[in-house]
Amino acid sequence: MNEEEIKEPMNEEELPDTEPTVSSENGTEEPAKEEVQEEKKGKSFFSKKNNKEKQKIEELEAQIEKLNAEKVELNDRFLRLYSEFDNYKKRVNKEKLDLIATASEKVILSVLPIMDDFERAIAANEKVDDINAIKEGFVLIYNKMQQMLTRHNVKEIEAVGQEFNTDLHEAVTHFPVEKEEDKGKVIDVTEKGYKLSDKVIRYAKVVVGQ
């Protein structure tokens, strides 16, 4: 046997990098069936992944569109509510101004008849020599004035003999008293106080015993 005919086996590194093939009927070589199936599986995997990503993107876009529509609706609703509230505030402010401007109208209308009585009394007093008639006229006008105040829920604050109360009284001076029980109490009134319903509109100016 010649040395040329004896060949050493090739190492694995020297083996040609060839893919296993399968001969077809027409003599051409085709990739092995297993590789074809693996390639199809790879394509199928990436195809499913792309479809999922596409579906997720479509869902996100639909959600964004929905949120934008809700934002527009809420913004429109807010603008309408703000406009209604602004109109309401303007109307209430106008009503308050009108109320302040005309709040004293009823009282003034009630006082005017008393003013008429005073004018008639003054005119009558120039021709009347009877002092008692003049006194009676003043008493009648005073009583009419008190009735008018009562109709408007104006009440006089009780003071004389009452314990001094800073919520109702204003002390103008203190005066020594003989009785111990009169100390800290109102012994005189220099100016009457009045309440409108339960609100003090003028404090009673009083003298307090000490």
What keywords describe this structure?
single chain; disordered N terminus; Nucleotide Exchange Factor Grpe, Chain A, domain 2; 210 residues; alpha+beta; three-stranded antiparallel β-sheet; three-stranded mixed β-sheet; 8 strands
Give a written overview of the molecule.
The strands form three sheets. A three-stranded antiparallel β-sheet has the order 3-6-7. The protein has a three-stranded mixed β-sheet with strand order 4-8-5, with no helix packed on it. It is 53% helix and 17% strand. It contains three helices and eight strands. It folds into three domains: 31-101; 104-152; 155-210, Nucleotide Exchange Factor Grpe, Chain A, domain 2 (Roll). It has helices at residues 33-102, 105-125, 131-151, and strands spanning 21-23, 29-31, 154-156, 169-175, 186-191, 194-196, 199-202, 204-209. The protein is elongated, with a radius of gyration of 54 Å. Helix 2 (105-125) packs antiparallel against helix 3 (131-151). It has 210 residues and is of the alpha+beta class.
SSE layout and pairing:
Elements: E1 21-23, E2 29-31, H1 33-102, H2 105-125, H3 131-151, E3 154-156, E4 169-175, E5 186-191, E6 194-196, E7 199-202, E8 204-209
Helix pairs in contact: 2-3
